[in-house]
Design a protein that fits this description.
It is built from 7 helices and 3 strands; from the N terminus they run βαααααββαα. With 163 residues, the protein is mainly alpha-helical. It has one domain. A 3-stranded antiparallel beta sheet has the order 1-3-2.
Length: 163
């Protein structure tokens, strides 16, 4: 499985208090995740979608261009399909909850989101690269997303403490 995690620095005491009060962060984590096909770049799903559109730039890891030979082959065999979207199976797996290959693990204080590499075996090679292909990271988050998520969680915790 390929997944992306982020740590919630400095909020663990509040999280522990919140768990005592109401049980978990799942409502706010679901808001951070976003809904299927959302274009809101501050959600996990919308950020991944934005990263596909920007060819990696949204996560500040621009994807290298295809080789000339492969670009010509791809244009002929799959006209109009953009990078990493030949069949759209990979894209759907990371932008539609429950899609083939999608992995979502929701726990009381964290969410893991990724791709089942037994269902989409080439995903791991795209994320890490190979000796013949440079990596094209399609999962991740950027610093602004992380800042916004921390604010949302902090606000949620503040509301919970007032209960």
């Amino acid at each position: 499985m390929i997944k992306v995690k982020f740590k919630i620095d400095g909020l663990m005491q509040k999280i522990n208090r919140m768990i005592t009060l109401s049980g978990n962060l799942q409502p706010i984590l679901m808001k951070i995740r976003g809904k299927a096909r959302t274009t809101d770049p501050m959600t996990i799903i919308g950020g991944i979608s934005s990263n596909f559109v920007s060819r990696g730039s949204f996560f500040q890891k621009p994807w290298p261009d295809l080789t000339n030979d492969y670009a010509k082959y791809k244009a002929k065999k799959w006209p109009g399909q953009t990078m990493l979207r030949r069949t759209n199976k990979l894209f759907r797996s990371v932008t539609i909850p429950g899609a083939d290959g999608n992995v979502e693990i929701l726990e009381p204080t964290r969410i893991s989101w990724g791709v089942d590499d037994s269902s989409i075996p080439y995903a791991k090679y795209l994320m890490t690269g190979t000796s013949r292909m440079k990596r094209r990271m399609f999962l991740g988050f950027n610093p602004e997303q992380k800042r916004q998520w921390k604010k949302l969680i902090a606000g949620y915790l503040k509301e919970t403490e007032q209960v």
